[in-house]
Amino acid sequence: MTEAPFLELAQVTAGYGAVTVLDGLSLRLGRNEVLAILGANGSGKSTVLKTSIGLTRMTAGRLIFAGQDITRLPAHRRAALGIGYVPQSQNVFSDLTVIDNLRMGGFLRPAAFAAEIGSVLELFPRLGERRRERAGNLSGGERRMLAIGLTLLLAPKLLLLDEPSSDLAPAMVDQVFAAIREIHRRLAIPILLVEQNVAKALSLADRVCVLVRGREALDAPAGAIDPAQLHMLFLDGAVRTSELRKGTGSP
């Protein structure tokens, strides 16, 4: 990457309490790039997102967003700068209706809500159909759509998505990923995506970073990676990273 990164984690060590999860991780995301973070369970994927938004304890390194050092900023200040975070779970207000959830997303920008709610409902027509339904009554896929829509109403400059396909039926996974692709096309904002569905991640991402035990094991263009070999790297680096390139190694 030759241009200055829009988001950069520089030699970041972070974790929870006394437990270190990210171990000197460096990562760079371009201004209009989709970067997928892949790896086995426990490799630190979701911690990358939580560290970026400010929900973990950093003990070393720096975090730069849009040219500003945000290492010491709390999560609410990072969100105000334009970092939109969609967690894997507990990502909607279950007792509120769909439309009231979306109003919560636009509470910092009430004047823009009326103009922008239409674009969110265009992306997710199902939310319009269920706008008066309590979010707690929605299906898993509908809640995922609502969580993304709520975040979009904050007008993020960067979107962090944690496992958007988790626990969804295949048809709903297709709908959610189609919407993410359209969001990136329309808004031209960078996306940092954590995902277990390797095929979907590779189809969406420009670049892939594979983590093994909190460290980068591979950083490469998505189109250059042989997905048949990725699972071997998940197993504590049991395959050389050079073998993950298309046309090398064996499945």
Quick one: overall form? globular
Spatial ordering of strands, largest sheet: 6-7-8-3-9-10
Structural class: alpha/beta
Q: What's the CATH topology label of the domain at 31-42 and 74-206 and 217-244? A: Rossmann fold
Query: How big is the Rg?
Result: 18 Å
> Helix-strand pattern, N to C?
EEEHEEHEHHHHEHEHEEH
Count of helix runs: 9
Main sheet properties: 6 strands, mixed
Mean pLDDT: 89
What oligomeric state is this? single chain
Taking pLDDT < 50 over at least 5 consecutive residues as the criterion, the unreliable ranges are 238-242
Give your account of this protein's structure:
There is one protein chain. Helices cover 35% and strands 25% of the residues. Strands 6-7-8-3-9-10 form a 6-stranded mixed β-sheet, with helices on both faces. It has a 4-stranded antiparallel β-sheet with strand order 2-1-4-5, covered by helices on one side. Strand 4 and strand 5 form a beta hairpin. By secondary structure, the chain is an alpha/beta fold. The longest helix has 18 residues, at 170-187. It has a domain at 31-42 and 74-206 and 217-244: 3-Layer(aba) Sandwich (Rossmann fold), CATH 3.40.50.300. The two termini are 29 Å apart. The protein has 9 helices and 10 strands. Helix 3 (98-105) packs parallel to helix 6 (140-152).
